[in-house]
Design brief:
With 265 residues, the protein is an alpha/beta fold. The protein contains 12 helices and 8 strands.
C-alpha cells in the first residue's frame, strides 16, 4: 500500500495496480479498497488502466482524525488525485460518489469523473432514520460491530439475504466488520451536507452519472438534479440493476466504466 497526506495531515492509503491511464476508485460505506476485489472488478479494470483503489479515512490502511467532518473526506480524495502525475479518471460510488463529486471542485488534475448514485441530502427523507442512527451508535459502542454492519446492510441498503451471504463469504468481510465504527458517522453525514448547484456551474470535467434502472426514485431524482447542475455531463442508466451493479452485473458495470474512460484518453 502507498499513501498520501491529506490537508489535515491524515495519511490516506491506496493500492496501485495495472497500467494505462490512472483511474482512482472511491468506495462507499461498509467497505474499503478490497470491495473492488469482488467479482474481479479491480483486476479487470487494471487490464486497461492504472487503478488507484483508495481507502477512505477510518478504513483499512488509512488514518483517521479525532473529529470527523465530511469535508475532510473531499480533501482526501483530492489529495490522492493530486498525487498522480497524469490527469485522472475519478470514480466514486455511493458515499464515495459524493466525496468524488466534491473533490472535483478541489483539484485541477481530472480527465473525467464517474459518479454512481452518490449519498447526499436527497437521501435523508428516504433512508435516514434517527432510530437506526441511535441503534448503530449503540451497537458500535457495545463492540457489536458485526451486528451493526448487518443492521446497515439489511435496513439501510436493503440488500437481499443472498447478497449479504455473498459478502460474508468474501475475504473482505472481516475488514468490513472491523471498520463498522465508521457507520454511524457516515450514515448521518448527508444530514450535514447541502447540495448547491451554483457551486458546480463552472465545472467542465466530462462527467458520467450512473444510476440503476431498478434503483429507488430518490436516486433517479438526485442523478437528474446533479446532471442539471453540470455543464458537461450525461446519465447512464444500468437497466435491470440497482445500487450495487458491480456485484449483480459486473460485466455491465466494468464495460460502462471503461467505455467512458477510453472516450477521454
Amino acid at each position: 500500500m502507498e499513501s498520501v497526506t491529506s490537508a489535515d495531515d491524515t495519511p490516506i492509503a491506496f493500492e496501485r495496480s495495472g497500467s494505462g491511464p490512472p483511474l482512482v476508485l472511491v468506495h462507499g460505506m461498509a467497505g474499503n479498497y478490497t470491495r473492488w476485489e469482488l467479482f474481479d472488478v479491480r483486476p479487470r479494470l487494471a487490464e486497461h488502466t492504472t487503478v488507484y483503489a483508495m481507502d477512505r479515512r477510518g478504513h483499512a490502511e488509512s488514518g483517521d482524525a479525532d473529529e470527523y467532518a465530511l469535508e475532510r473526506e473531499f480533501e482526501d480524495v483530492a489529495a490522492v488525485v493530486d498525487s498522480i502525475d497524469d490527469p485522472v479518471h475519478l470514480f466514486g460510488y455511493s458515499h464515495g460518489g459524493l466525496c468524488a463529486l466534491e473533490a472535483a471542485l478541489r483539484t485541477d488534475n481530472l480527465r473525467s469523473l464517474i459518479v454512481y448514485e452518490p449519498a447526499g441530502p436527497w437521501e435523508i427523507l428516504h433512508l435516514y432514520s434517527e432510530e437506526i442512527d441511535e441503534e448503530l451508535e449503540a451497537l458500535v459502542e457495545d463492540g457489536e460491530n458485526e451486528q451493526a454492519l448487518m443492521l446497515f446492510l439489511r435496513e439501510v441498503v436493503e440488500l437481499p439475504e443472498s447478497q449479504i451471504e455473498e459478502l460474508q463469504a468474501a475475504p473482505s468481510w472481516s475488514a468490513r466488520v472491523d471498520e463498522a465504527h465508521t457507520l454511524p458517522r457516515e450514515y448521518r453525514a448527508p444530514t450535514t451536507y447541502e447540495f448547491e448547484p451554483d457551486r458546480f456551474a463552472d465545472m467542465t470535467t466530462p462527467t458520467l452519472l450512473v444510476v440503476g434502472g431498478e434503483s429507488p426514485q430518490w436516486a433517479k431524482d438526485a442523478t437528474n438534479e446533479i446532471n442539471d447542475a453540470l455543464s458537461n455531463s450525461r446519465i447512464s442508466v444500468l437497466e435491470g440493476q440497482g445500487h450495487v451493479a458491480m456485484n449483480t452485473a459486473p460485466d455491465l458495470f466494468i464495460d460502462e466504466v471503461l467505455a467512458f474512460v477510453q472516450k477521454f484518453q
